Amino acid sequence: MTLSPQDLRRLVDEPASRAGVSAVELTDAVLARIDALQPVTNAYITVTSELARADARLVDERRAQGEPLGRLAGMPVALKDNIDVAGVPGTRGSDWFRGRVPDADAEVARRLRAAGAVIVGKTTLHEFAYGATTNNPHYGACRNPWDPERVPGGSSGGSGAALGADQCLAALGTDTGGSVRIPAALNNVSALRPTYGLVSNRGTFPISASLDTVGPMARAIEDVAHVFAAIAGYDRDDPWAIEHAYEDPLAWLDYGSPTLAGVRIGLPTTFFFDDVEPAIARNARAAGDVLAGLGAELREIDVPGADHAVDAATQLIRAEALALHRERLDADPGRFGEDVRRRLELGHAISGADVAEAIVRMREWRVRMLRVFDDVDILLTPTTNATAPRIDDAEMIATTAQLTRFTYAWSLAWMPAVSVPSGLDCSGLPTGVQLAAAPYRDAVALRCGHALQQVTDWHRARPPV
């Protein structure tokens, strides 16, 4: 049976409807969708059609034989191209690694495949994952399916655009300061930045090891949660992993009628609703009202020092990115895209004393946030303060600073945060709302996002393409 785009849309929107569909049929439908829309979105650097079909056939064979299958059996998943897949080119979005083919899976790729996921390709990213536009000079600009003249966000822009256009059912990105949450908001899909250290970074190319994490993305939080459950867990071979107990991310999925009784949701009174487009703020507050209607308690709360947290995160990211690329930058600066080169060079102004001070501020900010979570379970903010800017207007450094304004602070605190769709603005562009929780309480943020999506259909809206 050949699945139509309408069939595929239903299968994306209704996970329960996938039970009777073969992995080969679903994979073929996604590959056809990629083929049809790749000229529009440029969401992929590499499409792994042969690998995907082989893995899909294996899932169907095991299903026919009655063998136990993983939680992601047959799900077509895309990976950002700074996450290694054995035998598949891993460019890291750069000219430096064009033609590089790793011989081993990243740990998250290994866990995805063990859970039965079908890898359909490697998605476009900002060069070296160091920018929020995904306007890549080496592999072409990735374009937002809601308006191909606009950016998809970044740096996991290809993962966001692919999901927004139904070119996969789930994706992985990496999030240093907002790089899964921003593309989720701008493409009308969902994403989780997990608690730092819960998901292995082994086999991924970093920006800032102090803040980086792999994050799952999908249209619905339900799928985000299933992917997170598959990839989370301690990896002793990852020097940045943290061994810590965390809540079952799937425990709340059995709720037939969503209730958030007893959940305390804080709306920051300063910073996170300042200098934001009116429709974005309005839609975020409307999402809060929906959650209150499900039994959550809304309360205004002071979150002092967020602006200073953003400054500290900026310092750390610039210093660590420069340290990572210093030899390449000294050897051949012209091999970098002009925007990434300029952003890397900003790191030269940061001294060792500046880094030491930023680390102190990071630790103080984490303690301050733990105190905030004595009074609330969730902090609700807009994900971004602007909708997707036009490609021609998006000067990368300024655009990155703008779009990360509300995401950096949670990264610095190593907190989990989900971004879920919150509606459209007056121009028909998506907006997102961010739900952040205390470290290791990823499940609380996922539960609230899932409850929101059970009683709204914002995440089901599709772009004109």
TrEMBL record:
One function term, GO molecular function aspect: glutaminyl-tRNA synthase (glutamine-hydrolyzing) activity
E.C. code: 6.3.5.7
Residue ranges annotated for the Amidase domain, each copy included: 25-443
The keyword Glycosyltransferase is annotated on this UniProt entry: no
Cited PROSITE patterns: AMIDASES
Family matches, as InterPro entries: Amidase, Amidase_CS, Amidase_dom, AS_sf
Top EC class, one word: ligase
Gene3D superfamilies found in the cross-reference section: Amidase signature (AS) domain
Sorted UniProt keywords: Ligase
Top-level taxonomic group: Bacteria
The UniProt record lists the keyword DNA repair: no
Family note: Belongs to the amidase family.
Record protein name field: Glutamyl-tRNA(Gln) amidotransferase subunit A
Lineage: Bacteria, Bacillati, Actinomycetota, Thermoleophilia, Solirubrobacterales
Name of the gene this protein is made from: gatA_6
